[in-house]
């Protein structure tokens, strides 16, 4: 799922933990699943941001640097306004968009 198209809230939302852990019947397993997905999303966001900021990397000082910094600031602001990775992961979990399995339970 593309994190830029997520409809996850950008602030913290109180959730019913019993409802959230209904699939796994274990809140700790649910948190682990959501945490792993949040790490994946966070890493993807970081790589995208780094790739976009690398386009502006210059190793010499010039007057154009001021204009480049403005563009870098706009890109950084865009990424700061996106919902946090953990909120996106919880939204994906609630919508049933995450695939997970527990090998120890499949025996």
What does this structure look like?
- This protein has 107 residues and is an all-alpha fold.
- It has one domain.
- Helix content is 56%, strand content 0%.
- The radius of gyration is 19 Å and the shape is elongated.
- The mean pLDDT is 82.
Looking at this protein, list some descriptive labels.
107 residues; mainly alpha
In short:
The chain has 107 residues and is mainly α. 56% of the residues lie in helices and 0% in strands. The protein has one domain.
- N-to-C SSE series? HHHH
Judging from the principal axes of the Cα atoms, what is the shape? elongated
Rg from alpha-carbon coordinates: 19 Å
Q: Any idea how many domains?
A: 1
Helix-strand category: mainly alpha
Distance between the termini: 30 Å
Instruction: Estimate the mean pLDDT confidence.
Output: 82
Strand content: under 5%
Largest beta-sheet characterization:
none
Task: Count every beta strand, where a strand is a DSSP E run of 2 or more residues.
Answer: 0
**Low-confidence runs of at least 5 consecutive residues:** none
State the oligomer: single chain
Q: What share of residues is helical?
A: 55-70%
The helix tally amounts to 4
Walk me through the topology.
Layout: H1 17-20, H2 27-54, H3 64-81, H4 85-94
Helix pairs in contact: 2-3, 2-4
